[in-house]
Amino acid sequence: MTIEYSVAAIAIAFIWLVVFLIRLLQRATVTLGETNQTLAEVRNAVHGLTEESTKLISTANQVTVDAKYKMRTVDPLLESAKDVGEVIHSITNSVKEAANTRSDGMPSRPKRTPTSSMKNYR
Questions:
Q1: Rounded CA separation 39/49 (Å)
Q2: How many CB atoms lie within 10 A of CB 42?
Q3: Given phi > 0 = left and psi -120 to 50 = alpha, else beta, which region is 106?
Q4: For residue 64, which of 56, 75, 74, 52 has the smallest C-alpha distance?
Q5: What is the pLDDT of residues 101-118, one digit of tens each?
């Protein structure tokens, strides 16, 4: 009789183990299915981001080319402005030298002080 109870207990334990493993495998299957679905969504999102990134890089390259072209267009104007500044600086230096030469060769005049129209009466 003890052997029958032992065999029955082993059979019940084995059935319980099989049921537990079946549930575990079912949950694992559901989890793997969700994981596959999530990976597919991630792939689609990455693919979409890749396309948008490619477009963004292309647009950035076009903007860079446009900016370089405009800088080349403006460069002669800036060079001309630099040349004009150098000419003005040269003229200013010439005027200063001429003024210094004239003031060195001329006798110095006494400095005028402003006179008051009111005289000091005591």
A1: 15
A2: 10
A3: beta
A4: 56
A5: 877 655 555 555 555 555
